[in-house]
Design brief:
Order of helices and strands: EHEHEHEEEHEEHEHEHEHHHHH
Distance between the termini: 27 Å
Strand order of the largest sheet: 8-7-6-9-5-10
Largest sheet: 6 strands, mixed
Number of strands: 11
Shape: globular
Oligomer: single chain
Radius of gyration: 20 Å
Helix content: 25-40%
Strand content: 15-25%
Structural class: alpha/beta
Length: 332
């Protein structure tokens, strides 16, 4: 297909080593001329969620799941997961509280910037399923982490048995945690005071890597944070584009693991990059693989948590979440 015949699409996303070849054009989706706009995450989610600025975009998995009950939703997802992170490191507590064990969170006040934040969705599910925390006993509070007035990007209505309230337009979650108004805080982005060494904030799991590795060994789950969404109208006009895009994302990321393991050079600014990569690969294997079947355990847990927490009226199946043609594949 000549360049003139290619479908021109604009993609909004963060820039990762696993997507860099799409950004530079070294990898191109068959039949597509991709304009890749490097966009910071919070700005990206706001612009795509509120205004739908991009033909396809990296998007919050939680925010996307919250749209699936709407028959007129503008986007549908591809099984491409640009960001995956364990989130035990994302639970912070006031250092003066009596919380010494996860079970001590029962009945406390916990903040999170948005109920629909994917990091919070995952950690609430993990606290309930794997640590016996009664999520309905928690007083959940939402609002700005560092700036007052943050609102939900996604239309999630928590079930009635959850106590969820906004902290208002004059206070922040970080300030409330420091004062002790909150016992704990679940947030993808670390509180600024914590990063600056404020001793009034500590992590719930000081050795979070050990906790996260134990969770993975038990579940084989690497939590999915972000997904790629595409306009439904565009897909209706060009149904072939879905699998071509998935294939391109997969081709772009495949060489990265080999590069990280290369002992001849450091492709990042980590001097022990290859050593880190070797140790991680031994535990996690290939963590950023695309596709539904390759991510069945993560998707099963996520969709269960989403239903329990009010993101969907019913338990969703992968066929409800992703472009149907990308859920299955031909076999030889």
């Amino acid at each position: 297909m000549s360049g003139l015949d290619r479908l021109e699409l604009t993609y909004g996303g963060e820039l990762y080593d696993r997507t860099r070849r799409l950004y530079t054009g070294e990898v191109a989706p068959e039949g597509v001329r991709l304009r890749y706009l490097h966009t910071a995450i919070e700005d990206l989610f706001w612009r795509q969620g509120r205004y739908g600025e991009f033909d396809l975009a990296e998007y919050s998995m939680g925010a996307y799941l919250s749209t699936l009950d709407d028959p007129d939703r503008p986007f549908v997802a591809l099984p491409v997961f640009p960001s995956r992170l364990f989130r035990h490191s994302s639970v912070y507590v006031n250092a003066d509280t009596d919380v010494s064990d996860v079970a001590d969170l029962n009945g406390t006040v916990i903040g999170t910037p948005e109920w629909s934040m994917t990091a919070s969705l995952w950690m609430r599910g993990i606290l309930g399923e794997h640590h016996g925390v009664d999520l309905a006993s928690i007083h959940w509070r939402t609002g700005g982490l560092e700036e007052p007035g943050r609102l939900e990007k996604a239309p999630v209505t928590p079930p009635a048995h959850f106590d969820v309230a906004h902290i208002g337009d004059t206070d922040t979650l970080s300030a409330q945690l420091i004062r002790g108004d909150l016992t704990a805080l679940i947030t993808a982005r670390a509180p600024r005071a914590f990063l600056e060494g404020d001793r009034r904030i500590r992590r719930l799991w000081p050795d979070f890597r050990a906790a996260e590795q134990a969770y993975y060994v038990k579940t084989q789950i690497i939590p999915i944070m972000h997904v790629v969404v595409i306009r439904r109208a565009l897909l209706a006009a060009h149904p072939w584009v879905a699998n071509n895009l998935v294939d391109a994302f997969e081709r772009a990321r495949t060489p990265v693991q080999r590069e990280l393991l290369d002992t001849a050079v450091c492709t990042s600014s980590l001097v022990w990059e290859s050593s880190y990569a070797e140790a991680e690969q031994a535990v996690l294997g290939d963590p950023f693989r695309c596709g539904v079947a390759a991510n069945a355990a993560s998707l099963e847990a996520l969709l269960a948590y989403a239903h329990q927490q009010g993101f969907s009226r019913r338990r969703l199946a992968p066929e409800d979440v992703f472009v149907p043609s990308t859920v299955s594949a031909a076999k030889i």
